[in-house]
Amino acid sequence: MTSRRAFACLLILAVWSRAPGAEPAVAPPPAHPLVPTVIESGRAEMVSTARETTFTFSQGVKITATNLTLTCDDLVVVARRGGDPAATLGKPEKFKSLLATGRVHLVQDDREATAGRAEVLPDEDRVVLSGQPVVRSLKDGWVQTGPKMILHRGERRAQVLGEGDVRAVLTLPPLKDLGFEKQKPRSAPQGAAASPTDPAAPPPGSPPPGLPPPK
User: Fold this and answer.
1) Helix, strand or coil for residue 4?
2) Nearest CA-CA partner of 100 in 123, 135, 76, 122
3) Higher pLDDT, 4 or 76
4) Mean of pLDDT values over 166-175
5) What is the mean pLDDT of residues 128-142?
6) pTM, two decimal places
7) 81 within 8 A of 55, measured Cβ to Cβ
8) Which of 8, 40, 57, 180 is least enclosed, having the fewest CB within 10 Å?
9) Stretch 25-40: mean pLDDT
10) Which DSSP symbol is given to 16?
């Protein structure tokens, strides 16, 4: 695809992100300042049918968006289209799916994820990671691995699914010793005076050692 055609694809995606149906009518204030969505790639292609438009980006892809940075080898974006079915460029009305493959690396807030494949399904409000996915917290230090992960949008819930002998693994930062063993008493420092309850100490009023008791 020529650079002009690639720019047209990016322009369509920018318009599509503001198209009716892409966002709720009344949205809560964003937690992060909204920034334009930019997709960079070595090659871009767009194919339209009567019902949907498919954007294909390859040869190294980088997405920069609000609170999101994603890099991968290849990216396929599918949008439902409206307007004249015979038109070369239909009107993208709703985002259907996004599929990133090959060395996927995603950073959002203080979390990052790597995987061989990441699929975003807006209609199902979930993201599916596969291909040895790893999710880690840059702030808290935990690491989650497993054959397949499903992240549920708006529910603060994630599923990690094992496959065969490969199990889900969660690695947390070290914890302090929580054992119930009795701690050993601390020994008195050398040169410290004996306590009154020490059996080796003379009783109060006793003469110094070596002197006879008073008559």
Assistant:
1) helix
2) 76
3) 76
4) 89
5) 93
6) 0.65
7) no
8) 180
9) 74
10) H
- Give yes or no for a contact between 79 and 96, defined as CB atoms under 8 angstroms apart: yes
* Residue where the block lists tokens 């690695």: 171
Q: What's the rounded Cα separation, in Å, for the pair 89 and 82?
A: 10
Name the residue among 164, 154, 152, 112 with its Cα closest to residue 133: 112
Helix (H, G, I), strand (E, B) or coil at 174: coil
| CB distance 148 to 133 below 8 Å | yes
Tokens coding 58: 């390859």
Strands (E), the chain: 38-48, 52-65, 68-72, 74-82, 91-108, 111-121, 126-130, 134-137, 143-145, 148-152, 157-161, 169-171
> Which letter does DSSP use for residue 97 in this model?
E
163 three-class SS: strand
- Here the tokens at position 67 are 């609170």
What is the per-residue pLDDT for 86? 57
Domains of the chain, first to last: 3-21+34-171 (2.60.450.10)
